[in-house]
Design a protein that fits this description.
With 385 residues, this protein is of the alpha/beta class. It is 28% helix and 14% strand. The two termini are 15 Å apart.
Length: 385
Amino acid sequence: MTTILGLENFLEAHADLVAGKRVGLLACPSSIDRGLRSSIDILHRHPAVNLVALFGPEHGIRGDAQAGAKVASAIDPLTKLPVHSLYGKTQKPSADMLRDIDVIIIDLQEAGVRFYTFVATALYVMRAAAEARLSVIILDRPAPINGTHVEGPVLDPAYMSFVGPAPLPIRYGMTIGELANMFNDDNLDCDLHVIPLRNWKRDRWYDQTELPFIPSSPNLPTLDAVTLYPGTCLIEGSNLSEGRGTTRPFEYIGAPWINAEALSEQLNDLNLAGLRFRPVYFVPTFGKYQGELCAGVHLYVTNRERFQPVSAMLHALQTLKRSYPDDFAWRAPWVPGRHRPIDLLWGNEGLRRHIDSDRPVEELIKSWEPGLTRFLQLRARYMLY
């Protein structure tokens, strides 16, 4: 049965929430209906919606900006509406951006992973709206890698950043609407309305919704990449390539100094649940090792229900550190004197210190279980499905 999106539910039964109001819309390329029409175009043409401004997350409203590329505010050539970038000079809407708006609609397909920046963008918009006393409407979308699997450490608030804006585990198993309700109860006091999905169950993966998969990031082009992302994004905190600049970002990992066949054999010998590796060679067109021949592994998920991406990547990182002690390194802080990228991605210093001291990975996995148990108890209060 086809999942009915929050966008479609809103148009069918809840458009009265914006009657007579000036509307802002936060959207991205994957903000579409099941007929592949953009919510930007749908709401702009809708007679009951007075759309006056657009807001763009990382990659921009049309998805033309690469990861990390700053996006300037501009005029959208298709709708002629102002586009306020939330990935340029500011990551939170300013008072000027909100001055002529009464309600903000958020229609974002996030990845179900804490360090995916749409989580922070949605939270920052809600925070700005609460301060400006504006209403927020969330058009809910499916949790792409299902809403049941939860994994990884809960972020230490001392390590909050744009890739870790709230105390969530790496994989949290919630929709953006459920997240918004949870954020709002944490002293936001936003006038929030979540328009729910219909015909969606928590154990469904995105390819079981009968909806078209549209990448919300140029570096997560497939559901396979999103499935691996909770683990392989941790490679960003090291000096290995995570496959950016190839046709398989977050499915390839490698570097010029790796023996592809040996590494593949080592990792397959670990018999990690639901995962296999094959040797691969690639030359990134941008990013780490641009223009250099890299050797490494291509990750294949053979059973996504059993696969644990965070735990699997801990074993891979430990194997890499042991096998290439003179070459493997953690990236330096993005801002001198601040936390290292790996610590921001992980949510504390535990991963880096654990791998550097060559302690058993199972100890690190056990260490996050008490925090994860507490999170699951909190999460249960916000499940809509």
